[in-house]
Amino acid sequence: MSLNLSLVPAGTKVEANTAGQPFDISTCQSRTFLCRLTITDQVEQESLDVSIWGSAEGQNFGKTPLLRIPQQFYCGTTKMVLDISLRPEVRFLQAKLDVNRWGRVSPTPMFVVELALEEVPPMAENTTTRAAGQTRS
C-alpha cells in the first residue's frame, strides 16, 4: 500500500512564514514521492517559497532542505519528485513555507495552498525491460 501525505492540508491560508507538522514516513516502501503543490488563491505582488525537510528523529530538520519547489507567484499546480531512497536516516518529513510581499495595496501576503505527497509504488521485482528488439518469450 502506498503512503499519501498532506504536508499542508487543502485550503490552508498562509499569511506568514510557517512550518507544517512532521510526518513519519518510516513505513513507506519506495521512499519516492510525487509532490503536488496547489495554490488556489493569492493576492498580487507576492511570492511563495516551499521546501521539504527531512529528519531522523522528527525534531532537528537540519540546514538544507531535501527539495525546494520553484518560487511561486500565481495560482496553479506544480509537481516534482522527491526521491529519498538513498537517505535511509530520514524518517520524518516537514514542509516549510516562506512568503514575501512587495506590493503597496495590502501589507500582508496571502496564499491558499495544499502540499500533497503520494508515494510512488516500488517496481515489481519481475519487471522486464522491453527495449528495442527485446521480447519476452
Alpha carbon gyration radius: 18 Å
Q: What order do the helices and strands follow? A: EEEEEEEEE
Shape: elongated
How much helical structure, as a percent, in the residues?
under 10%
CATH topology: Jelly Rolls
Biggest β-sheet strands, sense, barrel? 5 strands, antiparallel
Q: What is the CATH class? A: Mainly Beta
Instruction: Average the pLDDT over all residues and give the rounded result.
Output: 90
Give the terminus-to-terminus CA distance: 30 Å
How many independent structural domains?
1
What is the CATH homology-level superfamily?
icosahedral virus
Helix tally equals 0
Fraction of residues in β-strands = over 45%
Can you put this structure into words, describing what you see?
The chain has 137 residues and is mainly β. The protein has one domain (4-119): icosahedral virus (Jelly Rolls). Helices cover 0% and strands 50% of the residues. It contains no helices and nine strands. The protein has strands at 4-14, 18-19, 23-24, 32-42, 46-55, 67-72, 76-83, 92-101, 111-119. Strands 2, 3, 5, 6 and 8 form a five-stranded antiparallel β-sheet that branches. The chain is elongated and about 55 Å long.
